[in-house]
């Protein structure tokens, strides 16, 4: 029994959404809702030595449930950015923008000058006594390096409430201090801000702590072109896993939406992937160490075979051996590698040589069917079929084999079969090792659904049978697609796929009902 949040009468009834507050009656729950609503999530913020603050589910969470929808504390241009509008953060061109009449920073129009987002650097630049003058629009502009830091430093003036929250975020300043990145940041931001803005408002230490907090907690948000950086409060406490149980989407406004692509059990830790779950283990670990300053020990990183997929492995050097090579020490991807079958060891240099060449060849390749098939044939000798490089080109191939409905109706049976096979394989693989990659999974499900529908059409032309089972499979994948993409905004390509998927789904349901 817990005390009612309103009258303290002992009760067994909890808020069913968060399971964390108790009420003696529906009336008291209603009365308390306005105060409780901002904190009513199906998780709590817990704390331990190892993880610091982290999120724990307070009840069973159903597939596709939204866990958290949160506006950013602050947002701004990426640290390396070409000139963008200081309001909407979209790119601007030399002959198609205005300069803010108060501070000189470029804007795409008067409506963006009025946005609150721009107030921080606008005022600071006015106090400087001299307008900013940006006239180079191609490529990264050094002046933009400090903008997001300035916005964080002045967050107290734009929102004291957000400033309080920003202060609580981890900056890892003590770990960063002295590193090459830190030294570069010190010159381009820490020493630059006081000099350029002619201000003594911020100490060097305060600036560098802010730079750290921004780097450790910043998310890349794709709602602007180019993507911008935003810091979220509660989402920052979500721990990292390369096999996470939450997916991250962004709505039109750039708010962060965390949701569960699969069911989550009560008391489970909630996690997102700070890196890219499509990368191999060595690349993810390097990226996490460089940007977030920690070594990942998640379940996927601890298992060198990545759940038996051998996603980062290469084939044994010995052509008579069918084994695969992986690091000889499970937690060190830089040590020598060893064949799991014949035990033969090779130097890391040999592995790097193959992987670098395989990566370079993808980069330099003109992406068409023929080249991709050639690539797959060639690298079959060195890479297992589930290797990340092989999958990277297979994903491209699935989309290139019939780019639209008209092309799909005329491709050869052979190519249709290939599209079906690769789409199926890729969905199986990524649902296993990267269930959070919902945009990719949703897109693949759409491709598979339409390929199955086309195959069904071809079969029913040849026989009088109506292959209901195939139609049902096509429906299954288009429903999966809708589930995976349901939170995607229509400013993204995935939002458009979602729209088409809903139309196809309804049509298929109708066909199946009458057949
Ligand atoms: Zn009560
Ligand atoms: Zn609640
Ligand atoms: Zn704008
Ligand atoms: Zn301005
Ligand atoms: Zn990991
Ligand atoms: Zn071997």
UniProtKB/TrEMBL annotation:
The UniProt keyword set, sorted, is: Metal-binding, Zinc, Zinc-finger
Q: What is the lineage of its organism?
A: Eukaryota, Metazoa, Ecdysozoa, Arthropoda, Hexapoda
Question: What InterPro entries is this protein classified in?
Answer: SET_dom_sf, SET_SmydA-8, Znf_MYND
Q: Which Pfam families match?
A: zf-MYND
User: Which PANTHER family would you find in this protein's record?
Assistant: GH11294P, SET AND MYND DOMAIN CONTAINING, ARTHROPOD-SPECIFIC, MEMBER 4, ISOFORM A
Extract one GO molecular function annotation from the record: zinc ion binding
PROSITE patterns, per database record? ZF_MYND_1, ZF_MYND_2
Xref: Gene3D superfamilies: 1.10.220.160, 6.10.140.2220, SET domain
Which stretches make up the MYND-type domain?
A: 4-40
> What name does the UniProt record give this protein?
SET domain-containing protein SmydA-8
């Amino acid at each position: 029994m817990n005390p009612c949040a309103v009258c303290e009468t002992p009760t067994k009834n909890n808020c069913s959404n968060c399971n964390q507050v108790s009420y003696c009656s529906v009336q008291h729950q209603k009365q308390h809702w306005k105060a409780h609503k901002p904190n009513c999530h199906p998780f709590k913020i817990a704390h331990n030595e190892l993880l610091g603050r982290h999120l724990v589910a307070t009840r069973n969470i159903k597939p596709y449930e939204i866990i958290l929808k949160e506006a950013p504390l602050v947002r701004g241009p990426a640290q390396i950015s070409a000139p963008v509008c200081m309001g909407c953060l979209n790119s601007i061109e030399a002959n198609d923008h205005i300069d803010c009449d108060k501070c000189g920073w470029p804007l795409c129009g008067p409506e963006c000058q009025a946005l609150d987002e721009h107030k921080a650097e606008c005022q600071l630049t006015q106090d400087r006594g001299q307008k900013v003058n940006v006239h180079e629009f191609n490529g990264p502009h050094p002046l933009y390096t400090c903008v997001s830091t300035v916005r964080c430093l002045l967050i107290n003036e734009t929102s004291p409430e957000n400033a309080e929250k920003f202060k609580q975020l981890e900056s890892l300043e003590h770990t960063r201090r002295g590193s090459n990145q830190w030294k570069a940041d010190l010159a381009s931001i820490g020493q630059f801000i006081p000099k350029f803005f002619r201000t003594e408002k911020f100490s060097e230490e305060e600036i560098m702590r802010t730079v750290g907090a921004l780097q450790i907690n910043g998310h890349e948000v794709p709602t602007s072109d180019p993507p911008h950086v935003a810091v979220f409060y509660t989402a920052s406490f979500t721990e990292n896993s390369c096999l996470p149980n939450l997916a991250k989407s962004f709505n039109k406004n750039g708010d962060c939406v965390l949701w569960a692509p699969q069911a989550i059990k009560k008391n489970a830790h909630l996690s997102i992937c700070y890196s890219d779950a499509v990368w191999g283990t060595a690349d993810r670990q390097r990226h996490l160490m460089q940007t977030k300053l920690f070594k990942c020990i998640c379940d996927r990183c601890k298992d060198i075979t990545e759940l038996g997929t051998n996603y980062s492995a290469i084939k044994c050097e010995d052509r008579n051996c069918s084994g695969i090579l992986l690091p000889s020490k499970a937690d060190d991807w830089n040590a020598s590698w060893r064949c799991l079958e014949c035990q033969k060891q090779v130097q890391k240099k040999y592995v790097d040589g193959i992987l670098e060449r395989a990566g370079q060849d993808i980069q330099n390749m003109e992406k068409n069917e023929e080249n991709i098939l050639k690539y797959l044939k060639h690298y079959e000798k060195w890479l297992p079929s589930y290797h990340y490089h092989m999958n990277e080109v297979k994903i491209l191939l699935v989309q290139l084999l019939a780019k639209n409905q008209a092309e799909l109706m005329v491709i050869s049976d052979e190519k249709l079969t290939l599209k079906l096979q690769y789409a199926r394989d890729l969905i199986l693989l990524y649902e296993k090792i990267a269930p959070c990659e919902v945009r990719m999974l949703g897109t693949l499900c759409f491709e598979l659904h339409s390929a199955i529908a086309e195959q069904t059409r071809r079969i029913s032309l040849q026989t009088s049978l109506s292959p209901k089972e195939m139609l049902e499979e096509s429906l299954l994948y288009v429903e999966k697609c809708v589930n995976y993409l349901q939170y995607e905004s229509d400013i993204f390509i995935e939002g458009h796929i979602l729209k088409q998927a809903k139309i196809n789904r309804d049509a298929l349901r109708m066909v199946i009902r009458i057949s």
